[in-house]
Amino acid sequence: MLLENKVAVIYGGGGxxxxxxxxxxxxxGARLFLAGRSRARLEAAASVARREGAEVEIAVVDxxxxxxxxxxxTAVADATGHIDIALNAVxxxxxxxxxxxxxxxxDYLYPVTGYLQTNFVTAKAVARQMRxxxxxxxxxxSTPGSRLTGRGLIGNAxxxxxxxxxxxxxxxxxxxxxxxxxxxxxxxxxxxSDTSYTxxxxxxxxxxxxxxxxxxxAGLAATTLLGRLPLRAEVAEYLAFAASDRAAxxxxxxxxxxxxxxxx
Length: 264
Ligand SMILES: NC(=O)c1ccc[n+]([C@@H]2O[C@H](COP(=O)([O-])OP(=O)(O)OC[C@H]3O[C@@H](n4cnc5c(N)ncnc54)[C@H](OP(=O)(O)O)[C@@H]3O)[C@@H](O)[C@H]2O)c1
Known about the structure:
Largest sheet: 7 strands, parallel
Helix content: 40-55%
Family: Belongs to the short-chain dehydrogenases/reductases (SDR) family.
Protein name: SDR family oxidoreductase
Keywords: Oxidoreductase
Number of strands: 7
Structural class: alpha/beta
CATH class: Alpha Beta
CATH architecture: 3-Layer(aba) Sandwich
Strand order of the largest sheet: 3-2-1-4-5-6-7
Strand content: 5-15%
Radius of gyration: 18 Å
CATH topology: Rossmann fold
Shape: globular
InterPro entries: NAD(P)-bd_dom_sf, SDR_fam
Pfam families: adh_short_C2
Bound molecules: NADP nicotinamide-adenine-dinucleotide phosphate
CATH superfamily: NAD(P)-binding Rossmann-like Domain
Distance between the termini: 31 Å
Order of helices and strands: EHEHEHEHEHEHHHE
């Protein structure tokens, strides 16, 4: 198993990517601590992960709140002695698809400050523990908006470019202490529309073009080299590899999981 004896914390652990990753990490032998906003979603993700044989604990924690996350990380470290993997898979609805003229400053900044805040908060909390143990992997999740252009993307682009820059710089800062940082950049997930905030968001964008959500998503799929969008499980499998010792020399990476919507 890839993650035997590893302790993994997942913020946004009840979400589409968080839950799928919890299941794969569980199958690979990790002990899991899932944290997020809604207890019901955390319970659901935990019960799926427990069916893979893992020990799983859940906690309702606001991943925007430094004190709350610090307390959670301290509690996990006290219980286990180490934290090997920390994934931030927090996601929330925000405005995309509008021209700059129709976008308020607040709507533009909402994803930028939100995603950069939660990733700062969780990385700061776990980095303290990982530096003291001299090992660990911090995983972040970006979007192809960091490299795309076109109308309606400015907030998503600033958020994603900022998070990728943050991840790269953090890898440089924490590398000498044995801590790796890996960012993944999946395209819109084919099988998350009914569970992710993106379902509502993509529906709004599709409406603006007079398309159904399914037609709009099919248009996205057509722009990829593989002719399809990635799946939650594919992102989760990659994260399990990146978090494992088999990827011990991998850090400062922005992993392109766009199904070929972007080429490097
Ligand atoms: N879905 C996609 O197509 C896609 C593609 C590329 C990248 N991504 C990225 O992947 C990440 C996760 O997206 P997702 O699709 O998995 O979203 P999701 O299914 O909507 O899950 C997001 C999770 O984050 C939790 N959350 C939100 N605010 C929180 C807070 N303040 N504190 C703690 N937990 C909080 C939510 O809790 P509640 O359940 O209580 O709301 C939810 O469980 C995002 O960064 C997104 O940009 C997603």
